[in-house]
Amino acid sequence: MSIKIMHAADFHLDSPFDSLSDEKARERRREQRELFMSAAELCEKEGVQAVLLSGDLLDSERSGFETSELLLEVLGKLNAEVFIAPGNHDFISPLSPYSALRFSENVHIFKSSEITKFSFPGKGFTVWGAGFTNSTSPALLSGFKPVREEGVNLMVMHGDLNMPKSPYNPITEAEIAASGMDYIALGHVHSFSGICRAGDTFYAYPGCPEGRGFDETGEKGVIIGNVGEGKCDLGFVPLGGRRYEKLCVDLTEKKDAVSALLEALPRDSGRDIYKIIFQGEYDGDLDLERLQEAVSDRFYAVSFRDNTRIKRDIWAQAGDDTLRGIFLRLLRRKYEAAQTDEERSKIVLAVRYGLAALENGEEYRT
Ligand SMILES: [Mn+2]
Q1: Is the Cβ–Cβ distance between 272 and 243 less than 8 Å?
Q2: Is residue 162 located within the same domain as residue 274?
Q3: Whether 326 contacts 357, CB under 8 Å
Q4: How far is the CA of 83 from the centre of ligand 1 (A)?
Q5: pTM above 0.85, yes or no
Q6: Which of 13, 232, 275, 319 could pair with 202 in a Cys bridge, judged by C-beta atoms 3.0 to 4.6 Å apart?
Q7: How many Å lie between the centroid of ligand 1 and the Cα of residue 221?
Q8: What is the 54 CA–ligand 1 centroid distance (Å)?
Q9: Residue 72 maps to which CATH number?
Q10: Is residue 257 located within the same domain as residue 207?
């Protein structure tokens, strides 16, 4: 006996997107709702029986009008049982849509910080869980004594694994191993954890379904597959939302930043949000406005950072009758005696640091 699940978390619907213009922020919030709809379509297409939403579905304890409508309609129409375990952002409160909205009967919300269960004997599974009732939460799984129900036993919960001091429901692997569950659907960490196992219990973080900043780069999605008693066959499925990416462009030996940038540009980045970091030795002009104009139509949004350092003949003052001259002569002797490139590049770095120290650090940018 096994059942097909989708496990998703950390949609953060209605995020403010402060770093974008008002218009783009509104557009991004609309796209978040569209991504939620495509996750629901994927459920239907895959014949998912249980949808596990492990918290921070909303960015705050409130939801906007469109989002409330979306939750009611999209979740209500699903041919699956839906389970929501509120997290630190969308914790249960009287203001929360989880309290105020009338969801259809297939939507089950863990409104208490006590672990409770919804059982479906006819369908062969039970889902356990607990929710945040505040923006922080003590350990919810600690001391939990499992009484397995017949069939597949699942749990859905928002929390911080292996972070004993976390204010966000700290969870240990030992508690997972002792939970008696077949699978625990976690939320809170925004990158996919892989499908993990502690004792006989499988568990995972799916990560957020779409990045919202440069600390959430790369491909994002949900977990889909089958879970049975003591076994699990789950995989990560990308949802195809916008991606945040960082791209480093080394300008060492390059004549012109614009052409170096054009050469380094990825293909098909038109939907994505990029931060481009220039590095290496470069003494040309880095006109960021001109760069922005040259490539802005290649991205949904792009920003730049100048991490280059000035190119210079580091030995130029080796003949000087100064402390700097003595320092340079000493290190040049070492440089000439060095056997490997690695040794030589270490010495060059030492020269740069030394010169920067002698010149109040103004010439060496990192
Ligand atoms: Mn969270």
Answers
A1: yes
A2: no
A3: no
A4: 17
A5: no
A6: 232
A7: 16
A8: 9
A9: 3.60.21.10
A10: no
